[in-house]
Amino acid sequence: MQVLKRVRPIGPVLAAVVLAFGLLVAPAGAQEGLSGSNPTAQAVNEQQLLEELNRIQGRVSIPDAKAATLEQPRGRDFRSFHEGALPWIGGIAIIGILLLLGLFYFVRGRIRMRSPESGVKVVRFNTIERLTHWVTATAFIVLAITGLNFVFGKRLLMPLIGPDAFSAWSQWAKYTHDFFSWAFMLGILVMLVLWVWDNLPDRYDGQWLRVGGGFFDKSNRTHPPAARFNAGQKLIFWSVIIGGIALTVSGLFMLFPFAYADVNGMQLAQTIHAIVGVLMVAVIIAHIYIGTLGMEGAYEAMGSGTVDLNWAKEHHSVWVEKQGAKTEPSQPAPTPAE
Amino acid sequence: MARMKFLCDADRCIECNACVTACKNEHDVPWGINRRRVVTINDGKPGERSVSMACMHCTDAPCAAVCPVDCFYTTADAVVLHSKDLCIGCGYCFYACPFGAPQYPRVSNFGSRGKMDKCTFCAAGPEADSTEIEYAKYGANRLAEGKLPLCAEMCSTKSLLAGDGEIIAAIYKERVTQRGYGSGAWGWQTAYRETITV
Lengths: 338, 198
Description:
The complex is a heterodimer of chains A (338) and B (198).
Chain A: H1 2-7, H2 10-29, H3 46-53, E1 56-57, E2 69-71, H4 75-108, E3 121-123, H5 127-161, H6 163-195, H7 205-210, H8 231-255, H9 263-291, H10 298-303, E4 306-308, H11 309-315, H12 317-327
Antiparallel strand pairs in A: 1-2, 3-4
Chain B: E1 4-8, H1 18-27, E2 37-41, E3 49-53, H2 62-66, E4 72-74, E5 80-82, H3 92-96, H4 132-138, H5 150-154, E6 160-164, H6 165-179, H7 188-192
Antiparallel strand pairs in B: 1-6, 2-3, 4-5
């Protein structure tokens, strides 16, 4: 109490001194230094923020975290890719491969067997392999059609059937794309397990590639040796695996939107998915051609699972020898056709 | 015809979120969808600013360009609207939109989105004006009644302006001249390829 009483008068005196000092000092900084004269001196600047990060991020008081991105001008890049480059990449890849195959068919014709059928069949693909192939193939064709609809639908189909019918079809196409994707993803994984061993590079690949697999020899005499899969088939296998995994990963990002990526991540996933998708369509068109129309005897391998012994000797000489060596002790001759 | 625009004067926005609430109430916007939101930049630091953001109704709108079913259209007042009957909920418009305006109700499997919903500049959609079905799909059509968007009408500090671009730009210019500062018309350069120079 004693102390407090003694101290009390000092308060006002101190305040007076501070104020007086303040008044003396104030004029020096009053022109611009005091806060309040220009409240925007430190304010955030839109142009500067955009130049620094190419997006403006803030804080929102709602649970949706995406809403905290105030501006993302990168949407412009997504748009110019999606409406500018993508239709061209897709169009050139798909029409290009069709033209090339047409030209190839016109010049080379169907690749026929050189020797007549032996009548003896060898098993080339067992049931599990064929099931995997056809599940993946069916899924891919459905995914390709419904996927291409996102790029070319409004340009090609909508003018023909009108906006309402096109929207209804696109809605179903979208659901179909989402659901068939799971069969495709599973198929790619099983395919990898089934065939990776036979698709590792071997010593015959170099020669096979050097002579172009005999594709360009019009006399049809070039048949480089090959094991179970030749270098061309290995290229198809690895593009399906690598492309399939790229489509799977980018597709999963889109199946669970914003679960694993922000808006720029989603744009990237969509961009990768679209580019890989249209390129895969082009690759698979070539694969379908050579597996059906392009080569005599090729379809049987995946259709019935068996091929003629002479076809196998022409196309997969090393594989036939190994198969013969494997089966000979128990079976003197390969199994006849059923 | 007017060229409708939004302008948020960030030096006046006090982050009260009345615009957000007004919008949600006026249009009966469901849970989880925000046609308008207030974003605070540099929150708690010197120079923090809040900006109220919704669809800016862009010139040459990117959402309309990327839509795979072409469900967008621009009205005579330059308001960007869309048809929920045509929308398939693919999400492309959100990837292309610089302002994060498109919203999707999450309804189906594997993160499918349902029909897109966004700010309509209180001009609803392609249905007949001021009908029940229009209200259910797109919310109120204030423009048809000769009123401007409610978010801006409600704004307590008149930070958010909505109306003809030239008129709101003139109001903003006058403010900046009088008070001597202004952090600019947020989003205008991106949305309209022009900004307000004072």
